[in-house]
Amino acid sequence: MTIKAIAVLGLTLAFFISPVFVPFDGFNPTLYPIPQFTPPVLPAGYAFSLWGIIYLWLLMMAAVGLWRFREDPEWDATRPGFILSMIAGVPWLAVAEVSPVWATVMIYVMLVGALWALIRAPRRDAWMLAGPLGLYAGWLTAASSVALGLTGAGWGIGGFSDVVWGIIALCVALTIALIVLWKRPSLTYGAAVVWALVAIMVRNDFAGSVAMLAGVGVVIIAGATLLLRARRPALQSS
Fold first, then answer.
1. Which among 66, 162, 213, 232 is least buried, having the fewest CB atoms inside 10 angstroms?
2. Cα dihedral: 193, 158, 150, 55 (round 10)
């Protein structure tokens, strides 16, 4: 267990400092065969500031996990998934700079690992473990779907426009989010998804079909988060 706790802290540290070595301002629009200069599925720039909280909270989680819970079997249950997510997450920025396709594949690996960890998070210690995992997984749910929408539109898959791919991407995100909330109600997970959806509405000036669907998604995810937490109080308020 201690080895896994050390691995979590080491990988989280590497993840934390990776933006220092690879400053990332989003996918290069010209890396797609069909350049994505104004994709409607992309959140407004301010939304990415959430990463600051995610990085710091995950680092605190990893440090506390090694310090106080390195031999705790419930904490240990979350580590394989989180390690998988970090293995893909540490080099993600470098890959995203040159290959949106591989970055899309990798962000789904990050998401799978994060959800694995979140769903297995214990009921206790919610704000030290399930809280940061939920915020991280929630943002990845949105970000992975955004990457999917950009890739689909950028390669013209199915002959669909960027608006259609934006709608497809949001439907994927909402489906994943509802399944996760049903399995593991989490305030921070739902909050991160809502944060991203609102930013998509802002990006589109609250107009157009993508913004409308994002608005519907805000109501659905916020309502599901609160309702499922109320009906499953044993799963805590993470």
1. 232
2. 50
Dihedral sign of CA atoms 168, 170, 176, 182 in order: negative
Contact between 61 and 129 under an 8 Å Cβ cutoff? The reply is yes
In 3D space, the residue among 71, 170, 202, 82 whose CA is nearest the CA of residue 134 turns out to be 82
Tell me: the pLDDT tens digits for 109-145? Answer: 999 999 999 999 998 888 999 999 999 999 999 999 9
Phi, psi (rounded to 5 degrees) for 156: 60, 35
Non-local CB neighbours of 88 within 8 Å, separated by 6+ positions: 106, 107, 109, 110, 113
Residue 189 contacts residue 181 (beta carbons within 8 Å): yes
Give tens-digit pLDDT for 68-98: 998 999 999 999 999 999 999 999 999 999 9
